[in-house]
Amino acid sequence: MRVLSGMRPTGRLHLGHLAGVLSQWKQLQDKYECLFMSADLHALLSEYKDPSQIGVYSRDNIADWLAWGISPESSTIFIQSQVKQHIELFFIFSAFTPLGWLTRCPTFKDQVKQLKDKDINNLGFLGYPVLQAADILIYKAGYVPVGEDQLPHLEISREIARRFNFLYKKEIFPYPQPILSPAPKLLGTDGRKMSKSYQNCIYLSDSPEEVESKVKNMFTDPQRIKRTQAGRPQICNVYSYYELFAPDVREEIKQDCLAAKIGCTDCKKKLAGILKKLLEPARDKKENLLKKKGYISDIIDSGRKKAEVLAEETLSQVKETMPFAR
Ligand code: TRP
Ligand code: SF4
Prior knowledge:
Blueprint: E1 2-7, H1 15-31, E2 33-38, H2 40-47, H3 54-67, E3 75-79, H4 85-96, H5 99-103, H6 106-114, H7 123-126, H8 128-137, E4 143-146, H9 151-167, E5 177-180, H10 208-216, H11 237-245, H12 250-258, H13 264-291, H14 295-321
Parallel strand pairs: 1-2, 2-3, 4-5
């Protein structure tokens, strides 16, 4: 069974990505044939006013995947726009995808509300789920690891597969199932939703100094004013980082906090130390990978070639099944 997943290259990767998507991809690559894609065309749909960073983030994200253990030997790593078959299949799908499926899609309605400043009332953006369906179905992927927010898109992918198979009377496409990513309840350092526009993320590539100063400024239990007061780890944002990233000491910290045996300053110092240690090896590895001339480009290139072969296979089946250019 094939697995395909993608990430939009709209920024650097942070601890939220590590706890969610990346750790899941790593597990899946040992069990399935995996394709991991940087979805730069999807990024373009929201970033078209200044698309200059998309390519930079694409390569930077892929360097992080590699540094964190996504293996170019066992997985196919590629950039969406380089495999042109996605767009061709997207176009064919758009011939028979009813507009109602797209305008009713909850993510579309949400995004139009949320991203008012980005002005995404465009043809392309409406077709977002159709392109995603093409991404998945061009590899006949059976499983798609995604966050909960992506479930409506997978539903549309299955509907498109069903409609194709029905209209052209051949079971070409499977009905891809989601594999839900663990949804880490990780907030930004200020306690708000993690987002690059709030500048509250700890990035995987942050230097030790950056990690230290970000952790130092983290919000803690707001009711714990004096060192002698007990804290409430269950509502403390600092503690939620311990939960995810420090399985060996989290219980001890929890008890010490509840018993006022540790102060918030020390608690944060300790967390900073743990995070620095966690990030360091992969950050060094990434730097080395980026230094090796052509290394990452070669991986992206061979990923494209592998993906192209699979994509072309499906596309020719599609054209065979619904001949329109003969
Ligand atoms: N829409 C996905 C997201 O924002 C990214 C994506 C694009 C994707 N194509 C995909 C995910 C195909 C899974 C499969 O997270
Ligand atoms: Fe949060 Fe740690 Fe302070 Fe407890 S001691 S409130 S866990 S920062």
